[in-house]
Specification:
By secondary structure, this protein is of the alpha/beta class. It has 4 helices and 5 strands; from the N terminus they run βαβββαβαα.
Length: 143
């Protein structure tokens, strides 16, 4: 059983009008380059759709592909959204339902794996220069 000590929150960087899920993101991740990443599976462990539905990605015991250098010991959660409707920049446009479900999922994962609150981070906290998920996870969820 792998040791999980970090939860990483991401965004799909999609427009608010796009309601996608595991199926679409899996295609993005598994299609060969240059269209996709050429990976073997979706990189995230969970995807939270616009209506708050949680879809399972990779099994929790499988190492993800979502936060380079931190995948061995982490779980990745992706929120659908995060891009302005015009497609030009990041924007906090997640639904209330998404955020409520995110908090609940994180609470469950923290209890299940003994992840301390300080180890619940945004992708941007692990990859300087990235905006993903376009908000400060610690401030928004625990602030």
């Amino acid at each position: 059983m792998r040791k999980i000590d970090t939860i990483v929150v991401h965004c799909a960087y999609t427009k608010p009008s796009m309601d996608i899920g595991v199926k679409e993101i899996t295609k993005w991740h598994t299609d060969p380059k240059p269209k996709g990443n050429g990976w073997s599976a979706i990189g995230y462990h969970y995807v939270i759709r616009r209506d708050g539905t949680v879809e399972d990605g990779r099994p929790n015991q499988q190492i993800g592909a979502h936060a380079k250098g931190n995948n061995r010991h982490s779980l990745g959660i992706c929120l659908v959204g995060g891009m302005t409707q015009d497609g030009k920049t990041h924007e906090f446009n997640f639904t209330k339902k998404q955020m409520t479900v995110l908090v609940s999922l994180i609470d469950t994962l923290m209890l299940t794996y003994g992840v301390p609150q300080r180890r619940v981070v945004g992708h941007r906290d692990l990859a300087p220069g990235r905006a993903c998920p376009c908000f400060d996870v610690q401030e928004e969820l625990f602030g």
